[in-house]
């Protein structure tokens, strides 16, 4: 056998084993059902965009219909391959060099790539005013900045968030727009857990489709604004994208169909488990960020606040026990902490007794608990990684 093939097979088998035995608490990954993954091995793969018989226009129309059903969008574009890719082509389509925007910066949870992209495109930006104590935008200060007329768009792009922007509190001038990157929260929006930004004027809703929206990697851009629709249609293809991935688009369509059927229950389960886990961890002595006396998060994310030394130790312990999560070193976490996500364990429909075990497991790894007890709890939880909220019997050949 070819040596490279042998190495790939070994690599793939090791990855499968690691995935099977992982406790998945990374807020940036999710379970993708076998139903949704079917088009990855379909005749859509590699098809040329401009050849009519490849049925790509019809596929795009179905995605538009599904997005209208879930997000109430008039326009939907799923031609880009990732969240960053769709953000970049969107900004290139709507903004010109020298224009100025307001941006969610990395310290307040904004995606670290966005300033780099804007700098590269010569688009100036100022930070959106933010209240770190409340984990929320300072709307009074933001509205004063909007009223100056100096800015073309507000760009909301938080990767770390336990609250979501309240667009009802933004006094948006009619000649100003909002680019709302909901990569982390697209699923929560279509599941009616948090407000839909497209219910407001002058909004472009976009994001990657592989976090709370459980699809394969794809970028999704939606809006109801006719001017933005015209600019996006005339620029994205063929100016910025040509070789699209229709197999990924077909997977996205199946994920949207899956969410139409199961999304409301699944997404509400995600947030319920996040708050349940946070409460149980607090009882174990963890310092958990909260947005009110009774509520820890409006999203799938939980913030564990720690010292840098504690954060580094806990993160390395988690790696050793194959628990996926994220360490953070920024002001939003009072400088240091851990980000957990519950979107994948919610897909397994874990119950309160399972969350009890999970909280105890995290406590034990934080405090160098009994190895045998850790292994016992891990096995119990791994055995309960059984997918829910999906079509189990539909095979598309």
Automatic annotation (TrEMBL):
One GO CC annotation:
cytoplasm
What Pfam families does the record tag this protein with?
A: SHMT
Residue ranges occupied by any Serine hydroxymethyltransferase-like domain in the UniProt entry? 11-361
Q: Does the keyword Cytoplasm apply?
A: no
Keyword Transmembrane helix included in the entry's annotation? no
Cofactor(s) needed for function:
pyridoxal 5'-phosphate
Provide this UniProt record's keywords sorted from A to Z: Amino-acid biosynthesis, Methyltransferase, One-carbon metabolism, Pyridoxal phosphate, Transferase
Q: Which domain of life is it from?
A: Bacteria
Q: Name one GO molecular function term.
A: pyridoxal phosphate binding
Q: Which GO terms describe its biological process?
A: glycine biosynthetic process from serine; methylation; one-carbon metabolic process; tetrahydrofolate metabolic process
Fetch the InterPro entries from UniProt: PyrdxlP-dep_Trfase, PyrdxlP-dep_Trfase_major, PyrdxlP-dep_Trfase_small, Ser_HO-MeTrfase-like, SHMT-like_dom
The Swiss-Prot or TrEMBL record describes its family as follows: Belongs to the SHMT family.
The record's section on PANTHER family has: SERINE HYDROXYMETHYLTRANSFERASE (PTHR11680), SERINE HYDROXYMETHYLTRANSFERASE 1 (PTHR11680:SF35)
Question: What is the name of the protein in this document?
Answer: Amino acid hydroxymethyltransferase
Tell me which species this is from. Agathobacter rectalis
């Amino acid at each position: 056998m070819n040596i490279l093939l042998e190495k790939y097979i070994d690599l793939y088998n090791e990855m499968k084993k690691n995935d099977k035995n992982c406790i998945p608490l990374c807020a940036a990954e999710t379970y993708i059902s076998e139903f949704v993954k079917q088009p990855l091995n379909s005749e859509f793969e590699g098809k040329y965009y401009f050849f009519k018989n490849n049925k790509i226009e019809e596929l795009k129309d179905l995605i538009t219909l599904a997005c209208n059903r879930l997000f109430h969008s008039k326009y939907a574009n799923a031609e880009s391959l990732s969240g960053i890719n769709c953000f970049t082509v969107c900004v290139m389509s709507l903004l010109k060099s020298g224009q100025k925007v307001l941006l969610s910066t990395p310290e307040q949870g904004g995606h670290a790539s966005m300033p780099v992209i804007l700098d590269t495109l010569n688009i100036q930006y100022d930070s959106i005013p933010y209240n770190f104590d409340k984990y929320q935008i300072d709307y009074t200060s933001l509205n004063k900045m909007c009223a100056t007329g100096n800015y073309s768009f507000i760009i909301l792009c938080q990767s770390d968030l336990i609250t979501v922007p309240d667009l009802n509190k933004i006094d948006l001038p009619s000649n100003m727009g909002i680019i709302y990157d909901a990569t982390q929260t697209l699923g929560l929006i279509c599941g009616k857990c948090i407000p839909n930004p497209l219910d407001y004027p002058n909004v472009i809703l976009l994001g990657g489709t592989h976090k709370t929206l459980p699809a394969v990697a794809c970028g999704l851009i939606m809006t109801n604004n006719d001017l933005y629709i015209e600019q996006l249609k005339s620029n994205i293809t063929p100016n910025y994208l040509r070789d699209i991935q229709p197999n990924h688009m077909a997977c996205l369509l199946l994920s949207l169909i899956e969410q139409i059927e199961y999304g409301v229950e699944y997404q509400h389960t995600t947030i319920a488990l996040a708050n349940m886990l946070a409460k149980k961890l607090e009882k174990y002595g963890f310092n958990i960020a909260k947005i009110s006396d009774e509520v820890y998060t409006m999203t799938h994310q939980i913030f564990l606040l720690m010292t840098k030394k504690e954060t580094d130790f806990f993160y390395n312990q988690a790696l050793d026990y194959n628990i996926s999560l994220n360490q953070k070193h920024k002001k939003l976490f009072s400088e240091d902490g851990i980000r957990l996500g519950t979107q994948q364990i919610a897909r397994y429909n874990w119950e309160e007794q399972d969350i009890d075990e999970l909280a105890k497991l995290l406590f034990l790894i934080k405090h160098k608990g009994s190895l045998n007890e850790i292994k016992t709890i891990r096995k119990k939880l791994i055995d309960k990684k059984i997918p829910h909220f999906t079509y189990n019997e539909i095979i598309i050949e």
